[in-house]
Amino acid sequence: MKRTTFFAIAAGFFLAPALGWAQQSGATHTAQEEANRQTVLAFYEKGLNQKDADAALKYVGNRYVQHNPGATDGTEGFRKFVAFLREKFPKSHSEIRHSFVDGDYVILHVNSVREPGTRGSAIIDIFKLENGKIIEHWDVVQPVPETAANSNGMF
Amino acid sequence: MKRTTFFAIAAGFFLAPALGWAQQSGATHTAQEEANRQTVLAFYEKGLNQKDADAALKYVGNRYVQHNPGATDGTEGFRKFVAFLREKFPKSHSEIRHSFVDGDYVILHVNSVREPGTRGSAIIDIFKLENGKIIEHWDVVQPVPETAANSNGMF
């Protein structure tokens, strides 16, 4: 199997759930909106799962305005976070459950698991893009509780 | 001032920031998407701010699937939550900082303050609509911390 074919298939497995959800949303998106979605999904996969900050930062524009209160601003803050994951939680994995697009914004609903087999956290990320590159990030993070008042799950 | 005029002005104040943001997103939305946004904003204002569950539930369809782990399923769970706010946090207020729309989905980025003068929580809500009515809800909630590693704020 050629490497490009392999990557195309691997990307398909990774992107299929998010795209499936998108197709269910009933929306018609512009080509730029879909490109923005793919950019954010690739950024997340490279940075948070593969823990390759350099590869992820290719999707970032001339600034990275950070609103996560635990992270320092800019691309250096992102590098530090990826290095932290690589050192402390090398098996951590973020599964993207839903993705949404709205103009310059991409929103991800994610189950982030730092130690395999644990419930992890629910995260909703908002990314702003400019000229097809990520320039700003907000998120909200909540641990998935052991028990819940309903049986629907957080995702 | 006639009551309808007052409500129109009040709604304008309430909706303007969210609409302003939407206009900045660079997206073109369908009339149904904009209607969905207005439905969710009205639901939030009636339920969470005015604490009038009956008025809010007029925007809900034939079911209300709840994914917030602290809330019981369905419209009864929502009624209980509104009653809880009314009794325990009558001055609580949710300020919608950003809103996004994607087909059947509306996403809100909210600063929810239970006691005036406190930092409150950052919340991102995802609502799914069907035939213009809300039928499902997910959210992620995180207290706004006293200090942060960057000076950009959570919103």
Helical content class of chain A: 25-40%
- Unreliable spans of chain A: 1-14, 16-23
Count of helix runs of chain A: 4
Question: How would you name the oligomeric state of the polypeptide chains in this document?
Answer: homodimer
Question: Helix and strand succession of chain A?
Answer: HHHEHEEEE
Greatest interface:
A-B, 48 and 48 residues
Question: Strand share of the residues of chain A?
Answer: 25-35%
Distance between the termini of chain A: 35 Å
**Number of β-strand runs of chain A:** 5
Mean pLDDT of chain A: 89
Sketch the major β-sheet of chain A: 5 strands, mixed
Q: What's the shape of chain A?
A: globular
Strand order of the largest sheet of chain A: 1-5-4-3-2
The secondary structure category of chain A is: alpha+beta
Radius of gyration of chain A: 16 Å
